[in-house]
Hints:
Blueprint: H1 2-23, E1 30-38, E2 45-54, E3 60-66, E4 70-79, E5 82-86, E6 89-91, E7 95-99, E8 105-111, E9 120-127, E10 133-140
Parallel strand pairs: 1-10
Antiparallel strand pairs: 1-2, 2-7, 2-8, 3-6, 3-9, 4-5, 4-8, 9-10
Amino acid sequence: MNRRITLATALTLTAGLALAGCGGDGAPKLEAVDAYMPQPVNQDMAGAYFTVKNNTDTADKLTSVTTNLAKDISIHKTVGTKMERVESLPIPANGTLRLGHGGNHLMFMGLKSKPTKNDVVTVQLHFAHAEPIRVSIPVKAADYQPKH
Length: 148
């Protein structure tokens, strides 16, 4: 009898572990697309824009960004005509977070070097749940306007 209980317990645990492996960790898998940075006019600051796609059933949020390009990089939103720094921006389940002119964006302050058109700036996006992702941001002309 002891042998049957031990065997049944072992099979139950093995099945549970196998099923857990199939489902993954439940963290969203995110991707950034359509990234660009208008060429900064000076070495004080720059902005960057992109869209984060979340094709999972789990909401997340962008919590920070890191880069070697600037002394400080922060997440901003625009309310009316005023920019304000925020701690995070939500990314809905099966939705997108759009960063663009006049809205949500990244602010690079104290650039260590001034990027020019055709350069590529690299940042790492950090989230509440998903693994960080590295984004290559092409530098466009200062007056660049994306076609949406």
